[in-house]
Amino acid sequence: MSDSGDIGAFASAVRQTPETYRSRGQPRRVSNAIARAMVSSGATKDSRLEPDAPLSSHLTYLVFRFILQIFYFCFSGYQWVLYYYHRLRLRISSVAVYHNRTPQLIRSDVVSLEKIPGHVATVLNLKNESEEGGGIDGLLHEVGELAAWCVGAGISVLTVYEKRGILKSMPIQDVNRAITRKLENYFGISNTPKFRLVIPHLHSQSSIRPGDNGDDATDEKFDLVINLISLTDGRTSIVELSKTLADMAMEHKLSSRDLSLSLIDRHLRDILEEPDLVILFSPDIDLQGFPPWQIRLSEIFYLPDNDEVSYVVFLKALQKYAKCKINVGR
Amino acid sequence: MNIISGFPGVEYLVKRTKTFLCHVLRTGPVPGHVAIVMDGNRRFAKKRHQETWEGHNAGFETLASVLEFCYELGVQAVTVFAFSIENFKRPAYEVDALMKIVKDKLIQVCENGDLADQYGLRIRVIGNRSLLPPDVIEVAEKAEKLTRNNTKAVLNICFPYTSRDDVTNSIRRIVTRAEKGLIDPDSIDEDTIASNMYTGSCPPLDILIRTSGVERFSDFMLWESQHYTMIEFVNILWPDFNCWHMFKAILKWGLQKGNGRYNENLLANDDSDYNLTGDDTLDYDSPSTTFVGDKDTSTDYYDNDSEETVVE
For a pLDDT cut of 90, what percent of chain B falls above it? Predict the structure, then answer.
């Protein structure tokens, strides 16, 4: 509170109405000239300054703007310190926690947790080809790792959201092979867990469901189901559903009175069930258009300033989830 | 804290500081739409060995002060999650107490109308209102009618609301229009759905704040918070939340916006990058004009008076 005097002065300066400025009888022309000079000299980037406004209000404005910049400067300094603190903590914990590519270690990490989510969703990003772990190979590597961790922790459904739908559009066998290789790496060739890739669509009949060896996937038990989704499964799918419903209403197959929340929910569930936990590997909460309908009660997890798909984040997310209490409304 | 605030002059100083911070923030980018989940009233009451309704009451005190800060700053729309449709599952006495508090506050607004008049505030009670008791609906309608000609800012009270209900309602309105042949199904897009939602007439959501450290949306603003919304989960119980936290949130948002959103290397930028492009000249010369954000269309956000938000 050292600058409380200034605060009072500024505040009272602003509280003075424009009429007071005018009544002081400032010569208009001079103030106009100065204002124009300020604009042209580049003292301010804002070209919309009215040349007719009196000088003191411009000055007040500039002073406040300057103070705001100081605030921004201090705040970004604070964030900078925080950034390194977070990174350091992350570095330390990733040394302490490492899966060593053995499922037993993952199992022992989660065995003490009270509950494990049944369905985990993650948001992944395609990184630049030039970056370490970038490109499509990097993305496939991340999906494979996540699949292995999920099987290791006993999670039965994994949803991978990638905004642009790169995983969805590439040949499904390639994705399949990449994940299989990763799982073999973790579990050994004789013990590879079975998984199923699902690319959901609004009308679920058209889901592509290749099993390990093609289409004998009817009665088999899978250790993990992996949903690959993208931006089009989010808001776009709700738009598509509205179009279908509107079409049906026009043909009098459906009355708007029959339209209920549960009807919409039933259709959108075909695309994706509600995940219990959404893990973001981004430095802040950025859902990037993840299906909105489905994250109603999902726990959102992210580590500030983290930008890697790492086991520490995954494990911390599970630990956080185990502690959270969900009480719908109550 | 209580001891300090008891000193003479402290209250005055706090008020002055608040005004000062407002004026400073206004020179930068100002969010157009802020949404708040007021979570933690009951835990607050429990911590202090109070009755639940006392916690809710304290929550409303906080709300009044935060709202004042927001509107003074020039935020055009604030949406608060007062009551979820799921909250009807709570014990009847608590539901009744909450209904009474909201009703009392609305009556208060109707009677003295300070906040509404001072900031040109339009009050809307949004959500599935058919679930409310008739006397509360009556008061809500009265408050809306009294403030309907205010156009500077809007306060959306979500009461009782869930986002899924909101989306369903929006689709239902579209389908009804399609039934009457007023809309071509092929022309439906994201904007059609967004504009038919309860908050359809408000600027896009810039900041979503949830207090009490719970990191979940709990069926609030699911559709709106998907793109370009800064989501802040704050680990403070709502009655403990104050303007300082709001100030920090807006500062953070402004910094992100100024540097390009989701810039991974937010911190590597030097001083010159805190540009305030997109901010407007603060018009101290004509206090009657609305403070308009960087969206040119924002002036006609509330012009649509025929907009019906109530579910039949």
Answer: 51
Q: Do A65 and B276 touch (CB under 8 A)?
A: yes
Give Cα separations from B50 to A81, B10, B43, B57, B278 (angstroms).
39, 27, 10, 11, 47
Q: Does B25 touch chain A (CB under 8 A)?
A: yes
Between A51-65, A95-109, B71-85, the lowest mean confidence (pLDDT) is in A51-65
Which CATH class for the B29-258+271-300 domain? alpha beta
CA dihedral angle for residue A306, residue A310, residue A314, residue A317, rounded to 10 degrees:
-10
- Give the per-residue pLDDT at A330: 65
Q: How confident is the model at residue A59 (pLDDT cuts 50, 70, 90)?
A: confident
Cβ–Cβ contact A253 with B under 8 A = no
Domain ranges of chain B: 29-258+271-300
What is the CATH architecture of A101-323?
3-Layer(aba) Sandwich (3.40)
Question: In A, which residues are within 8 Å of B27 by CB distance?
Answer: 61, 64-65, 68
> Band of the pLDDT at B303, cuts 50, 70, 90?
very low
In sequence order, what DSSP letters do the residues of B185-205 get, joined into one string? Answer: GGG--HHHHHHTSTTTTSPPP
Residue of B nearest to A247 (CA): B185
Q: Which residue from B157, B174, B175, B172 is spatially nearest to B220, judged by alpha carbons?
A: B157
Give residue B78's pLDDT.
96
- Report the alpha-carbon distance of residue A35 to residue A48 in Å, rounded: 11
Check whether A79 has a pLDDT greater than 90: yes
And the tokens for B43?
């835990």
Q: Output the CA torsion sign for A83, A89, A94, A95.
A: positive
Q: Does B267 lie at the interface with A, CB-CB under 8 angstroms?
A: yes
Of A154-168, A246-260, B158-172, B275-289, the one with minimum mean pLDDT is B275-289
Residue A87 and residue A208: Cα distance in Å, rounded? Answer: 40
Q: Domain segments of chain A: what residues?
A: 4-83, 101-323
Provide the whole-model pTM: 0.79
Residue (of B203, B198, B233, B206) closest to B218 by Cα position: B233
